[in-house]
Amino acid sequence: ADNLEVIIPSSIEETIKRKLKFLEPEIKRYLEIAAVFGQEFEAETIARAGKRNVGQILDAIDELRRLGFIKESMPDIFFFSEDIVRQIVYKNILKSDLMQYHKAVGEMIEIIYRDVIANYLEQLATHFTIANDSLKALHYSKKAALKAKDNYAHTIAVKFFENALKYEDDIEEIFKIKFSLAEIYFLTGDYKKAKQQLNICLKINPNSHKVCEKLGNVYENMGDYKNSLKCYQTGLKMTQGTEAVYTFRTDLTWLYTRLGQYLR
């Protein structure tokens, strides 16, 4: 169900919509489930999502092949003849059915691909978001975001962290997500957004030395050494008597060096 914002010529769309009208409801349902799943799909995945066994959907698959909606690439593995066909099928699914299909496909992925579920975190987050399953949308959005962050896929990580924030109501979890977003914005050089996220984190927990340090890093990279110094000195006071104090001593040493001074 990705990449559905392509401009589709009206003549092609009308032709496919006419063909859709003549499909039997059950066959059309399998086609719509396939469109929700993706460009390529296995017969088993559609059967499972449609609460059927493979044998029960083979006639429908044959009819869809005959009509040119799909083709077979390998035994029991099929694909839409053109991605534009999938886009049009998807676009014309009723909203109530769309939510149901996304939920069914998400639950099917959880079962069939449970041993490699880490490969499907983005899809699961998307399916359960569209299905309006808030608990699973939150769960998989956070997992997808953390995986993307670890892989330096910053745009994807931001997308799923922001999606998770729509559902999260635990203040400690909100703090973690906001801090993760700040780390990403810092790495990508978007210091304005990094500051915004860190200031929200400080409102949630004014005593977080991690936030003080990261905010100091942001100001330092911006060349605002005065505010950077304030952050590091605040963090130094916070962490007296703990191992974290050495982090701030190091930060201050580097900052003074940058300013042409030295810590005495």
Automatic annotation (TrEMBL):
InterPro entries: Hybrid_Histidine_Kinase (IPR053159), TPR-like_helical_dom_sf (IPR011990), TPR_rpt (IPR019734). SMART domains: TPR (SM00028). SUPFAM superfamilies: TPR-like. PROSITE patterns: TPR. Transmembrane segments: none annotated. This is Uncharacterized protein. It comes from marine sediment metagenome.
